[in-house]
């Protein structure tokens, strides 16, 4: 895989990129027959642990799991706290904002979903809010996020891990998990509304089966690809101006870098919100199709 | 892009968040907004009702003012005509009174005149008799000549 090549090629640029795009991984190491962290390029424990690419399926991206859960707790906690202190009368500013988000999502559900379902609203809300909370992490400066990883050290004090990918959306596992849940509900509603026969009848033409899976995989990959590319461009801007700084040795070179980062960040705000919105709308549309009479 | 067991962790986390939304967030938001909607529609209803009431009250007050105005104008007209009537009556009375006074004064004057005439006649009669006595130098029997004297007096 490309990642493997990047990891083995130790030119500074490739090293920088692969470092930014590698997750903090904890998993089963085949080589040493132990559970442990995947090591960093500069790691001194190469004999006793695995590289990220050497780990098999049974490994966990701790940064993705931590960040996604943490952000989910913050964002859903925010809505929960608003509701705890909610007034029925004139709402405050915070409550007003939370209600605006809720009304926006429930409005999208109402105008695009014509069946009866109690789960589709919460599903749309959870996916939109959660994805948005992930995507916002893309606006954190690329260098800042690896700071956490670099400071995770082992008992000997050596930098044992070195990776910390702050953006859960740029790890394909997270969008895939969301898409699988969507696929589950689409299947459930197809069977509930048209019966098992109706569901199977869709696949008389076997190409439909490909479409059925690719639809949901595309749902995940669209989200993943957009945010991964966005992150990549931030990294490339970082490299570009890092190189300028090294070549010309003038500190003021950070100013154009800052400007370019700013421009891309401003543009990226659109992508961040748009991808969360698209995921939500497609979820609603797919479930609406599953409920629709043929 | 490596799919691994992280997938399951995310799956579980997503299911938990969906459940939280389904169980707590979504219903409470719906309840709050529905309650507010109801409240607002009630408020609007009440506002339109009171608007209607206000209009009715305005209409009523306008009518009252109009009635009062027309009543006042009729009263004023009545008062004016009554005043005219009183003035007329007073005038008539005054004229009558004047006439009465004038009449009585005239009657008085008439009486006085006749009285004076009477007096004058008697005096003239006396004077005539005295003159005749002097002319005749003798006493004339007053009673025998009375007819003549009376005739004379009448001629005066």
Could you describe the 3D structure shown?
The complex is a heterodimer of chains A (294) and B (156). Chain A is mainly alpha-helical and 294 residues long. Chain A has nine helices and three strands; from the N terminus they run H-H-E-E-E-H-H-H-H-H-H-H. Chain A has a three-stranded antiparallel beta sheet. In chain A, strand 1 and strand 2 (34-37) form a beta hairpin. The radius of gyration of chain A is 22 Å and the shape is globular. Helices cover 93% and strands 0% of the residues of chain B. Chain B has helices at residues 6-136, 142-155. The longest helix of chain B has 131 residues, at 6-136. Chain B is rod-shaped, with a radius of gyration of 61 Å. Classes of the chains: A mainly alpha (294), B mainly alpha (156).
Q: What labels describe this entry?
A:
heterodimer; A: 294 residues; globular; B: mainly alpha
Element order, helices and strands of chain B?
HH
Quantity of strands of chain A, as a count:
3
Number of discrete helical segments of chain A: 9
Rg of chain B, alpha carbons: 61 Å
Shape of chain A: globular
The stretches of 5 or more residues of chain A where confidence is low (pLDDT under 50) are 1-9
H/E order of the elements of chain A?
Answer: HHEEEHHHHHHH
How much of the sequence lies in strands of chain A comes to: under 5%
Shape of chain B: rod-shaped
Work out the radius of gyration of chain A: 22 Å
Largest sheet of chain A: 3 strands, antiparallel
| Classification by helices and strands of chain A | mainly alpha
- What share of residues of chain B is helical? over 70%
């Amino acid at each position: 895989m490309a990642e493997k090549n990047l990891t083995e090629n130790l030119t500074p640029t490739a090293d920088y990129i692969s470092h930014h795009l590698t997750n903090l991984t904890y998993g089963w190491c085949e080589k040493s027959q132990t559970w442990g962290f995947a090591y960093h390029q500069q790691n001194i424990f190469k004999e006793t642990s695995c590289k990220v690419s050497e780990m098999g399926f049974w490994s966990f991206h701790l940064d993705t799991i931590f960040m996604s859960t943490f952000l989910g707790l913050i964002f859903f906690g925010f809505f929960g706290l608003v509701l705890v202190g909610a007034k029925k009368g004139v709402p405050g500013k915070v409550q007003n904002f939370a209600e605006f988000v809720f009304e926006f999502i429930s409005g999208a559900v109402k105008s695009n979903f014509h069946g009866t379902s109690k789960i589709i609203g919460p599903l749309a809300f959870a996916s939109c809010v959660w994805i948005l909370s992930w995507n916002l992490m893309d606006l954190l400066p690329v260098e800042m996020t690896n700071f956490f990883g670099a400071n995770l050290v082992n008992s000997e004090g050596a930098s044992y891990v070195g990776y910390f990918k702050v953006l859960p959306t740029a790890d394909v596992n997270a969008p895939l998990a969301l898409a699988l849940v969507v696929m589950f509900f689409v299947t459930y509603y197809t069977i509930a509304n048209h019966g098992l026969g109706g569901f199977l009848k869709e696949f008389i033409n076997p190409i439909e089966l490909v479409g059925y899976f690719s639809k949901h995989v595309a749902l995940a990959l669209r989200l993943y690809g957009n945010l991964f590319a966005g992150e990549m461009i931030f990294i490339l801007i970082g490299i570009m101006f890092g190189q300028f700084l090294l070549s010309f040795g003038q500190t003021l070179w950070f100013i154009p870098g800052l400007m370019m980062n700013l421009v891309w960040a401003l543009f990226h705000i659109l992508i961040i919100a748009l991808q969360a919105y698209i995921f939500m709308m497609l979820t609603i549309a797919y479930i609406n199709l599953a409920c629709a009479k043929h | 892009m490596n799919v691994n067991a992280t997938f399951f962790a995310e799956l579980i986390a997503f299911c938990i968040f969906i459940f939280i939304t389904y169980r707590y967030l979504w219903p409470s938001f719906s309840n709050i907004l529905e309650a507010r909607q109801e409240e607002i529609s009630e408020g609007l209803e009440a506002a339109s009702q009171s608007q209607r009431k206000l209009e009715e009250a305005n209409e009523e007050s306008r009518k009252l003012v109009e009635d009062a105005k027309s009543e006042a104008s009729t009263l004023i007209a009545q008062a004016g005509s009554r005043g005219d009537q009183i003035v007329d009556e007073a005038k008539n009375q005054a004229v009558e009174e004047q006439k009465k006074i004038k009449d009585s004064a005239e009657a008085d004057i008439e009486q006085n005149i006749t009285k004076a005439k009477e007096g004058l006649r008697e005096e003239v009669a006396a004077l005539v008799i005295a003159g005749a006595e002097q002319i005749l130098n003798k006493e004339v029997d007053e009673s025998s000549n009375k007819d003549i004297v009376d005739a004379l007096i009448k001629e005066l």
